[in-house]
Amino acid sequence: MATPASDIGLIGLAVMGQNLVLNMADHGYTVSVYNRTTATTDDFIARCKEEEPSAERVIGFAELKDFVQSIKRPRKIVFLVQSKAVLPTDRDAVDAVIAQLEPLLDKGDIIIDGGNSNWNATIRREKELAPKGFKFFGSGVSGGELGARFGPSLMPGGDKAAWKELKPIWEAIAAKVDPKTGKPFEDYKKGVPITKGVPCTTHIGSDGAGHYVKMVHNGIEYIDMQLICEAYQLMKTLLGMSAGEMSKVFAEWNSGELDSFLIEITTDILQQKDPADKKGKKWFVDGVLDTAGQKGTGKWTSANALDLGIPANAMAEAVFARCLSAIKDERVVASKKLKGPKDTKKITGKKKLIEAIRDALYCSKICAYAQGFQLMAEAQNEYNWKLDFGKIAGIFRGGCIIRARFLQKITDAYTKDPKLQNLMLDPYFKKAINKGQTNWRKVVSTAAEQGVPCPAFMSALSYYDGYRSAVLPANLLQSQRDYFGAHTYERVDKPRGKFFHVDWPDPKRPQLNM
Ligand code: 2AM
Question: I need a labelling partner for 429 at 20 to 30 A (CA). Which of 2, 49, 215, 464 fits?
């Protein structure tokens, strides 16, 4: 048998898998590859030979046994296969691949699930594999196809000691940011692998922590995208702006504190002409049907927020907004039957309204991130992790879909105060909301008056106002619960934890003077 020569193995050669392999090869690693369908492996190796200078370091295998034996020990095998498991008891392709690998592995070998698996399944898999002597990692990979190829944000969760084995490769292939500014390096645009800077990866925690944080990243991505769409909708509906005109606004926003990957691609999308229009006059975005798909990570984030009792209403609103968009036929019928406001005033002061929308977007974005970080803070108690929010925000700065200038500020906030209770209480963000809130309220009230939906702006504002309210109407709510269900209540004039009950209707209760 030949001496094992590969540094790492990868199973699952769909686009993300292929691109991660090429990324590793670019950084000098020898990679063994295997795919269930051998023809895909052959095609990939052929493509590598033609297109990729580093392809000599990629070795294809038709047999799983040969693949495993070609990797240096302790073996590192990453797989990117479609995962469907949601409940801890669900079994899917990830389990099938693990089952095939198990008899071929040796104790101490490290297997890494790089797909978007549910953290519950990752916790279960780690529990099953640890007693057998295998080190199992769930590592979220964010950044889409381009990220995988040239530098993703990587969120690994698993055994801390085994992380040392994985770290050099993960740090090499991850996106890198400038340590001074937090801005991602983009050398890959010049065809050069990125080698300098702070890598966008860190050991997130044990078992499912990496997949959990990746899921919350996606939940934040949902709301980030929805907020941008609401800004677009308001400019389009209230100000009658064209896609091209809005593109200029987004480009300007991208030069300030809203600077982010999602605003950048929005700028690009909005200036794109429709390739189906021979005259080249129509905007691309106007030709796209207004129904959004989803794969589930936003829903998982919101469902988990409900399970843990964390008020992540804006994040959930982003999921519901996609659901509402999906019932296009119903909306078309309803648009002819249900009336909007009667007295819509003509909007004046275009420049001022655009500025207000920008502020509303920024303030809502702060709330959305506050909710995401609150959720992670609760999850670490629930699942026994110890999360470092400064480091998590730090690895979101580059590579991933939510990368933004703003994340440097979040990194700073949690580095300064690792126990920060809520992002909105950090001096920088507190000041930003204070500055923007008048405009934020103006946008939300104008939208309500004019009948333009902006659910994420609105629910983020409700979250903000709710969070800063020392008194909420839950006194009445708890009274109702005590009335119909004897659920008891606490009193404002008694210590917390002392519960009271009234026998409703209480004959001794003072009567109202009517
Ligand atoms: P395939 O090319 O043989 O379909 C994304 O779908 C990747 O997951 C593909 O590489 C696919 O392999 C792989 N995949 C899906 N289900 C799998 C399974 N049960 N076992 C192994 N690989 C699987």
Answer: 215
**Is pLDDT at 54 greater than 90 in this prediction?**
no
Distance 299 CA to ligand 1 centre (A): 24
Helix (H, G, I), strand (E, B) or coil at 454: coil
Residues contacting ligand 1 via CB (< 6 Å): 12-14, 35-37, 40, 81-82, 93, 96-97
Q: Count of CB atoms within 10 A of residue 148's CB?
A: 25
Q: What is residue 123's predicted lDDT score, i.e. its pLDDT?
A: 96
Residue 507 pLDDT class (50, 70, 90 cuts): low
Taking the C-alpha atoms of residue 163 and residue 166, their distance in angstroms, rounded to an integer, is: 5
Question: Best of 81, 83, 100 to mutate for ligand 1, by most ligand atoms within 8 A of CB?
Answer: 81
Q: Going by CA atoms, what residue is nearest to atom 16 of ligand 1? A: 93
Rounded to 5°, the CA angle 173-176-179 comes to 150
Cα of 75 vs centre of ligand 1, distance in Å, is 21
- Residue 60's pLDDT is 96
The pLDDT tens digits for 121-149 are: 999 999 999 999 999 999 999 999 999 99
Task: Ligand 1, residue 92: give the atom nearest the CA.
Answer: 19
What percentage of the chain carries pLDDT values higher than 70?
99
What is the token pair recorded at 440?
């934020």
Closest atom of ligand 1 to CA, residue 40: 2
Query: Cα separation of 364 and 222, whole Å?
Result: 13
Residue 212 has pLDDT above 90, yes or no: yes
- Which structural domains are found in the chain, ordered by start? 8-211 (3.40.50.720), 215-464 (1.10.1040.10), 474-513 (1.20.5.320)
Residues known to be catalytic = 214, 221
For ligand 1, mutation pick of 13, 15, 35, 61 (most atoms within 8 Å of CB): 35
CB atoms within 10 A of CB 307: 11
Using CA atoms, how far apart are residues 148 and 226, in angstroms rounded to an integer? 24
What would the two tokens of residue 95 be?
């389990």
What is the rounded average pLDDT of the residues 476-493?
96
Distance in angstroms (rounded) separating the CA atoms of residues 281 and 273: 7
Q: Which atom of ligand 1 is nearest to the CA of 13?
A: 10
Q: Out of 59-63, 156-160, 162-166, 505-509, pick the least confident.
A: 505-509
Write down the pLDDT at residue 514. 61
User: What integer best gives the mean pLDDT of the chain?
Assistant: 95
